[in-house]
């Protein structure tokens, strides 16, 4: 991922989390003010003045992205190493047609959900074939064995990235927080998924909340998907190096 993609993703998450968390119950209007300032400045300036303004705006956003390192949120981008066995498994699991494999991307991260010292794999497949009507994408949590075999621990019909892994646990597994904005009619905010024995992460025990309080967490699959596509920095189900 390019530097611009990383800070863009970080800034978007920072703004969303601060707004959701309240940060002392103060309304976060920085994004609105910045957009209004940008619109006003660009409508009244041309040439060098516009270029200087855009540069200054980018510097402000980069600074905001750097400040994220002081928060309790660990930002983690998807693994960059090709994983042929995983790609093959996902293609078969989701029955992706052969002609769609090169157009279907996959992203994955390792995360230890039960703190037993062995990582699970959180993977999402992104493409026209797998996109849901609500604009989300299916995702799975997998347990891998030494022979590159996989067992599905949890399957989500649709998510949007990034995904938040909480430091808090329910029944021995860390809570998973999904951003549900836009996924279905009236779904705005977050779904806090609490693991339930016999039911997994998708039960009536889950909470739908408008915002999140500040607490330690790990944000995975944090890539800017649009930037990845523009830069050709992604992996497909067709195999290594296929774009």
What does this protein structure show overall?
The protein has 243 residues and is α+β, with helices and mostly antiparallel strands. 30% of the residues lie in helices and 25% in strands. It contains five helices and ten strands; from the N terminus they run αααβαβββββββββα. The strands form two sheets. It has a six-stranded mixed β-sheet, with no helix packed on it. Strands 2-3-4-5 form a four-stranded antiparallel β-sheet, with helices on one face. Strand 2 and strand 3 form a beta hairpin. Residues 1-45 and 57-70 have low confidence and may be disordered.
Q: What's the total count of β strands?
A: 10
What is the terminal-to-terminal distance?
A: 16 Å
Unreliable spans are 1-45, 57-70
| Percent of residues in beta strands | 25-35%
Radius of gyration, in angstroms, nearest whole number: 19 Å
Q: Give helix % range.
A: 25-40%
Tally of distinct domains: 2
Specify the oligomeric state: single chain
Mean pLDDT: 79
Shape assignment: globular
Helix-strand makeup class: alpha+beta
Largest sheet: 6 strands, mixed
Major sheet: arrangement of strands: 1-10-6-7-8-9
* Separate helix tally: 5
Topology pattern, helix = H, strand = E: HHHEHEEEEEEEEEH
């Amino acid at each position: 991922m390019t530097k611009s993609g990383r800070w863009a993703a970080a800034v978007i998450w920072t703004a969303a989390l601060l707004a959701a968390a309240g940060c002392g119950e103060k309304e976060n209007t920085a994004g609105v003010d910045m957009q209004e300032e940008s619109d006003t400045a660009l409508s009244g300036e041309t040439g060098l003045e516009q270029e200087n303004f855009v540069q200054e705006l980018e510097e402000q956003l980069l600074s905001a992205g750097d400040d994220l390192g002081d928060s309790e949120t660990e930002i983690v981008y998807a693994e960059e190493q090709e994983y042929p066995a995983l790609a093959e498994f996902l293609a078969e699991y989701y029955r992706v047609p052969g002609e769609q494999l090169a157009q279907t991307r996959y992203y994955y991260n390792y995360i230890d959900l039960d703190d037993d010292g062995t990582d699970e794999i959180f993977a999402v497949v992104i493409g026209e074939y797998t996109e849901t009507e609500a604009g989300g994408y299916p995702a799975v949590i997998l347990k891998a064995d030494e022979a590159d075999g996989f067992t599905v621990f949890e399957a989500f019909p649709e998510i949007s990235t990034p995904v938040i892994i909480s430091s808090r646990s329910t029944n021995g597994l860390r809570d998973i927080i999904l951003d549900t904005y836009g996924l279905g009619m009236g779904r705005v905010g977050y779904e806090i998924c609490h693991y339930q024995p016999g039911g997994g992460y998708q039960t009536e025990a889950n909470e739908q909340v408008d915002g999140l309080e500040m607490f330690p967490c790990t944000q995975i699959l944090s890539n800017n998907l649009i930037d990845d596509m523009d830069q050709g920095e992604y992996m497909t189900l067709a195999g290594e190096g296929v774009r």
